[in-house]
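User: Could you check the structure of this?
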Amino acid sequence: MKNPCEHVSEHEDVLKDIKTSMPSDEAVELMAARFKAISEPSRLKILLALSSGELCVEHIAKAVGGNQSAVSHQLKTLKDNRIIKSRRDGKNILYSVDDEHIMTMIKVAKEHLHCDE
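Assistant: Sure, the predicted structure tokens are below.
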């Protein structure tokens, strides 16, 4: 049977480039995990709050309208995905953004909300 694609030779070159530049399966899994981590609304709100700077869990909870236990759970997910980091300051643990690339993507997504206006 004849190949239904009329641009076989052109597409073969593109396909070769795609295969060469495609990240490993492990890298794609890591990318997907990070997207999944930031796609949950409460975690996204936490990141938007942390875009203003370092905060303790109490202030993050107030900023996002959540309770400290739920926020702590979401902070763990973000930290496990190396999107945020923490440091101890006396009795407090302060959280901040650890991956500025993620924040750049969030900033672009936020700006994109107004593209249709």
